[in-house]
């Protein structure tokens, strides 16, 4: 079975396994820091209420069996420890079943989180991490050569990520087709980074070149991943360069970093030797029969599951970031089929005054990542994922479903709930309970160079009215009694 062993991809396997494991570590750190205030027993969308109405067959999860905040902590720490062991390459030094078990454990634990995470885990990169982690489990250990079928499935995954994103853009907003999308995107994207304003201020002809280059890299280049050799490595290099450009221009959690890691699966050892000037890779033994049988069975399963995302790529009604099964295997990907032309932010305020009058002293809560203070330089958080801040962006788009968690969020602010306040950058009341809270809308745009020099501000904002009128604990109590 010489065809089964891809002996020239040992470095690619190491990069993929360690890189995917590193992203899992980030994901489980987010679980430890954010899951309980967002989804815990006293969270904004409590998991116990979710599993009471959604059966296991629709959302398989460890938490369907039993939920407690302590179990969430245990899941998070197990994920961090196992992930760090894989980053260090320890399980990979043993027999192939050891890294297989480690990655499947990470996949199962994170699947348990995602399937009960509701809107807070409704992002395409959750499915991308789960699919990548599942495939990494079957790349084997240092004792055997990487299986060629798993490598092909990884190339197919990268192709779906890039081609899916390219097609959703081309079929979607006309701004992508007339090359004007980046006139707006850097300013209206969910969470700008420290360099996003500078990208926005680039000359408009440069923006048009960016969009045209993006179309080439996402619509044409991915097809060359299926041509092993130097052509494949060049295609991977172009996609990696594009993803690094996106890393510099915004905060997209681990989407870009994980895509970079997966693209390295297409770079064989000869390319690494040429680039590094030293011998890369090394001899690996033949795969044992049991390992071949397991890998071929899993590969066949993934081929069957590929029908749905393949059909989706050719559909006029292409789905973006869709999972066709509850295991999040072989998914459809894509992003930013629609581009906003202006930025609206929800600003949350509170007051200690007894009445929410026009003369009340309203103070603004500060969020960690989303725009607020016009003087503040946005920070680079990716690959770390600020889930509350991202949902605030969707809330500002007018998504009514987001009110399901936003009203409980306002209640937690009125209670001065410590876990909720830790999700924020600043509490203007220092842990004291405000008497009233409210939400206002503001239009935001980047400050022009002359405005920046005159005021020091990076943003200019304009009041766009009230979104949620003043609420108090008594207001919530009356609503509860009315039910």
Structure description:
- The protein is an alpha+beta fold and 483 residues long.
- Helix content is 52%, strand content 7%.
- It has 21 helices and 4 strands.
- Helix 1 (10-39) packs antiparallel against helix 4, helix 1 runs antiparallel to helix 13 and helix 4 (69-87) runs antiparallel to helix 5 (97-114).
> What is the mean predicted local confidence, pLDDT?
95
Low-confidence region ranges:
none
* Biggest beta sheet attributes: 4 strands, antiparallel
Rg over alpha carbons: 24 Å
Number of strands: 4
Beta-strand residue percentage: 5-15%
Task: Give the helix/strand class.
Answer: alpha+beta
Total of DSSP H or I helical runs spanning 4+ residues: 21
The N- and C-terminal alpha carbons lie at a distance of 67 Å
Helix content bin: 40-55%
The general outline is globular
Order of helices and strands: HHHHHHHHHHHHHHHHEEHHHEHEH
Topology:
Layout: H1 10-39, H2 47-53, H3 62-65, H4 69-87, H5 97-114, H6 124-136, H7 148-171, H8 174-177, H9 185-188, H10 196-200, H11 204-219, H12 230-249, H13 255-263, H14 269-276, H15 289-305, H16 307-313, E1 343-351, E2 363-364, H17 387-396, H18 403-415, H19 418-421, E3 436-446, H20 449-455, E4 459-471, H21 473-482
Antiparallel strand pairs: 1-2, 1-3, 3-4
């Amino acid at each position: 079975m010489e065809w089964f062993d891809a002996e020239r991809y040992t470095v690619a396997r190491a990069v993929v396994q360690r890189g995917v494991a590193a992203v899992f570590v980030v994901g489980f750190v987010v679980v430890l820091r954010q899951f309980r205030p967002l989804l815990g027993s006293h969270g904004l969308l409590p998991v116990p209420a979710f599993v009471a109405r959604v059966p296991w067959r629709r959302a398989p999860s460890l938490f369907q069996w039993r939920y407690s905040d302590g179990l969430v902590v245990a899941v998070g720490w197990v994920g961090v420890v196992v992930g760090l062991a894989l980053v260090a390459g320890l399980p990979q030094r043993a027999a192939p079943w050891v890294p297989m078990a480690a990655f499947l454990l990470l996949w199962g634990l994170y699947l348990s989180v995602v399937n009960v995470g509701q809107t807070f885990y409704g992002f395409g990169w959750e499915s991308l991490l789960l699919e990548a982690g599942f495939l990494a489990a079957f790349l084997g250990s240092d004792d055997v050569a990487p299986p060629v079928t798993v490598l092909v499935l990884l190339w197919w995954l990268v192709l779906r990520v890039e081609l899916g994103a390219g097609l959703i853009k081309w079929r979607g907003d006309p701004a992508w087709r007339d090359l004007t999308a980046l006139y707006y995107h850097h300013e209206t994207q969910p969470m700008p980074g420290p360099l996003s304003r500078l990208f926005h201020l680039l000359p408009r002809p440069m923006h048009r070149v960016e969009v045209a280059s993006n179309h080439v890299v996402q619509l044409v280049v991915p097809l060359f991943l299926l041509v092993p050799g130097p052509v494949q490595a060049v295609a991977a290099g172009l996609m990696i360069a594009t993803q690094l450009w996106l890393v510099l221009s915004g905060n997209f959690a681990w989407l870009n970093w994980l895509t970079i890691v997966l693209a390295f699966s297409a770079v064989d050892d000869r390319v690494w030797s040429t680039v590094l000037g030293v011998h890369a890779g090394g001899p690996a033994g033949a795969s044992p029969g049991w390992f071949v049988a397991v890998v071929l069975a899993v590969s066949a399963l993934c081929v069957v599951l590929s029908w749905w995302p393949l059909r989706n790529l050719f559909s006029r009604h292409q789905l973006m970031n869709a999972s066709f099964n509850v295991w999040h295997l072989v998914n459809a990907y894509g992003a930013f089929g629609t581009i906003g032309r202006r930025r609206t932010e929800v600003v949350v305020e509170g007051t200690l005054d007894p009445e929410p009058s026009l003369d009340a002293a309203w103070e603004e809560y500060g969020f960690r990542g989303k725009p607020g203070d016009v003087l503040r330089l946005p920070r680079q958080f990716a690959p770390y994922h600020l889930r509350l801040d991202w949902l605030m962006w969707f809330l500002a788009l007018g998504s009514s479903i987001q009110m399901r968690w936003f009203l409980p969020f306002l209640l937690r602010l009125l209670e001065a709930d410590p876990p909720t306040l830790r999700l924020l950058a600043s509490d203007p009341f220092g842990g004291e309970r405000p008497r009233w809270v409210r939400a206002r809308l503001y239009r935001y745009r980047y400050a022009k160079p002359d405005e920046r020099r005159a005021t020091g501000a990076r943003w200019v904002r304009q009041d766009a009215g009230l979104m949620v009128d003043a609420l108090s604990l008594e207001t919530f109590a009356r609503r509860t009694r009315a039910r």
